[in-house]
Each structure stands twice: as C-alpha cells, then as structure tokens.
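User: structure tokens for this one?
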Amino acid sequence: MRMPDLLSVGEALIEFQQQPGTGLFQQGFGGDTSNTAIAAARLGTSVGYITRVGADVFGDRLLQLWRDELVSVDTVARDKDAPTGIYFVTHDEKGHHFQYYRTGSAASRMTAEILPLAAITSARMLHLSAISQGISETACAASFAAIDAAKKAGVQVCYDSNLRLALWSPARAWPVIRDTITQADIFRPSLDDARLLTGIEEPQAIVDYFLDLGSLCVVLTMGAAGVIVATPERRQFLGGYRVNAVDATGAGDAFNGALLSRLIAGADLFAAAAFANAAAALATTGYGAVAPLPRAGAIPALMDAQTVELSEG
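Assistant:
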C-alpha cells in the first residue's frame, strides 16, 4: 500500500454555517488541518489525515467526507468515549464569527503513543497548526512527537500559527509556537496572528523577526493585501486577486493545501506561493470551509485572467 505524500495532523469538526439573511444554519465541515488536506487532495496530491473522531454520526460524516475527497482515512482513529467537535459560524457587518464546542472532543484525546509513525516517516510533507497543539496537552505532545519523527526521517514540516484565542492566550501559545517555528521547514503565519504574537505591526518587520528567530522560510498571508514569501536569501511580495469575496473561513487552509500540493509536485517555493495566493482568493467566493476549496482548473484560470503586483526584496 502506497503511503500518502502529504500527512496533515490535527482536529476536524462539524460546521454549522449561518445562511445569508436568515437564522438558519447549514451543516458542513471544518477544522484547519482537515481543510488543508482536502484542498491538497482536490489538486491531485496524495493525502492522508491523522486525527481522532467520535463513534457518532458526525464522525461517520467526516469519514465519508474524506473518502469522497480522496483523503486517506487509514490514520484516522475512532473514540467511543468522546464526541466529534462542532462549531457555528455567524456573519455580521464585522465579518464572520466562530463559536466552538470542542472541549473533551475525540481529537483532543490524541496522544504521542498512538501516532502512526510509519505513515509519518514515509511521507514527503507533514502539516500541522497551533490548533493541533492548543486543543489539549496530550495533542500538543503528539504534535511535537510527529514533528520529531518527521525531521528524523527527512520529511519536511509545514506549520501554520493559526492562533485561536478561545483555546489559549497569546502569552501561553507563544512559547509553543516559537519552539515549533524553529523546527519547521515552512512557517505559515497570517498577518493577524503575527501581530498578536509579536506586537509588531509592519509586515516586512514581522518577516524579519521570524527569520531572525531561526525560521527557514516564512510565508506571511495578509488577506486581500496578498502574501510575503521569504527565506534568508530571497524575499517576494505578491499582491491579492480581485474576487467577489463573501466568506474567508477556509482561505488560509486553501492557501496551505495549494502551497504544499505544488511543492510536492516539484515547484519552487515562490511559484508554489503564487499558485496558493490564487487558490486562497477563490476560496473566499463561497460560504463554508470546504465547499469553496478550488479544484485544479480554476486556479490557473484566475492567474491567467488577472495580473497581481509582484516585487522582490
């Protein structure tokens, strides 16, 4: 059996998305690392997911989702003593808001002892986020154990800061995130997260800070303003695409999936980031975390249709 090229580890949840202009909610799916796995799979990458779900109807639905999206479930475990987590998304003039019900979830009961180490060491890329670490102490330990196994096997690690203040404060999260940054091959913060964690406002200064901290590669996403991609040797700014954005829920995850998909396919970092920049823009044109994740043909079509600002240094 062939092992997946990309393994994503973390927490998947059931999403209830408020429908425009109503008090009704539509059931969908979420969880940043699950979204990333699906985004990459839609682009043709061999992907697996490491998590735990409840032995409940919501766990059934997540497993069916991954099978439908061609994400391997060989590394998904079921927990008969804990539920699958859920969350609600509401919208107002200030944007989208999240309410989570995940305390004691099956995913939060992940431990280092039950990690599928053979799958991790056979992959080409491991992806995780600070949410993977913030959901519990045991999940945090499992995340570090997965990183350690990956690094020893020469597997690249991509890490998304994805700070969730409902899980932990910046002061508590920062030591964990800082330690992980120094172990990751690619660090993927958003501008909002980076400002909360560092107290620095200016994007280029934020990139400098993370590089000085020891990051090998920083990919700073800035929403509609675009992205900065930086290594110690080279830096590039890519402007944002003009799209009819209605919901940014899964945009960062679409970016991650597209970035990793292109890197695994052999693209260099800067070309992969340009592709991911377009993927993230497309993900904002629909509601929910999963449904708008773009498929392969839509991304080059947008890149061909629009020229974005590009500058070096």
